[in-house]
């Protein structure tokens, strides 16, 4: 089953959230419904980036890598394509 990493941007504070899922649309709806404790005060969110992987292990490794870049130049390059 394919898995995905996704990056959301809060329309309230413009900050980013990076996560992993097997159903991106359902996960976006979950966040925007305020059901995720860590993001409920920052809704609504828009989807910024999605990457697909063959399995969860690969997706989690990529999620960890992107989180290590958060706020830096490499993260901005990923988001803005600079």
The first-level CATH class is given as Alpha Beta
Q: Kindly name the structural category.
A: alpha+beta
- Shape from CA axes? globular
Strand order of the largest sheet: 2-1-3
Number of helices: 3
- Rounded average pLDDT: 94
Strand content: 25-35%
Instruction: Give the N-to-C terminal Cα separation.
Output: 32 Å
CATH architecture: 3-Layer(aba) Sandwich
Describe the overall structure.
Strands 2-1-3 form a 3-stranded antiparallel beta sheet. It has a single domain, classed as GIY-YIG endonuclease (3-Layer(aba) Sandwich). The protein contains 3 helices and 3 strands, in the order E-E-H-E-H-H. The mean pLDDT is 94. The protein has 82 residues and is α+β, with helices and mostly antiparallel strands. Helices cover 38% and strands 28% of the residues. It is globular.
Describe the secondary-structure layout.
Blueprint lengths: L2 E8 L5 E6 L2 H9 L12 E9 L2 H14 L3 H8 L2
Antiparallel strand pairs: 1-2, 1-3
Brief descriptors of the model:
3 helices; three-stranded antiparallel beta sheet; 82 residues; GIY-YIG endonuclease; globular; alpha+beta
Quick description:
The protein has 82 residues and is of the alpha+beta class.
């Amino acid at each position: 089953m394919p898995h995905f990493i996704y990056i959301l941007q809060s329309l309230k504070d413009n900050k980013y959230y990076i996560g992993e899922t097997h159903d991106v649309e359902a996960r976006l709806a979950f966040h925007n419904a305020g059901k995720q404790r860590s993001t409920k005060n920052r809704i609504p969110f828009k989807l910024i980036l999605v990457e697909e992987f063959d399995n969860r292990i690969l997706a989690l490794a990529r999620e960890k890598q992107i989180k290590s870049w958060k706020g830096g130049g490499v993260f901005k390059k990923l988001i803005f394509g600079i």
